[in-house]
Amino acid sequence: MTERNTLTLSEKIQLIREHENNVSYRVLVEKYKISIGRVSKIIKRKIEYIEDVENNENSNKKRNLRDEISQQVDQQVYE
After folding, report:
1. What is the pLDDT of residues 24-78, one digit of tens each?
2. Domain segments of the chain: what residues?
3. Residue 52 contacts residue 9 (beta carbons within 8 Å)
């Protein structure tokens, strides 16, 4: 099995900028060690990521946390 590589917000923005400069998906896959599908999803969600940067989100953030209700349900299931 391959190791899962999660990109930070700043890495995702960098990937988007490189794609805008006509860097191919294959090159991005090799550079960031992620799947082609993941590259595609990042490119499709680029507006969301750019808005996060403009709203001064933490650039080291890797994922959006789920809402509080989902976290409570997860905790109860775990217990």
Report:
1. 999 999 999 999 999 999 999 999 888 888 887 665 555 555 566 776 777 788 7
2. 9-76
3. yes
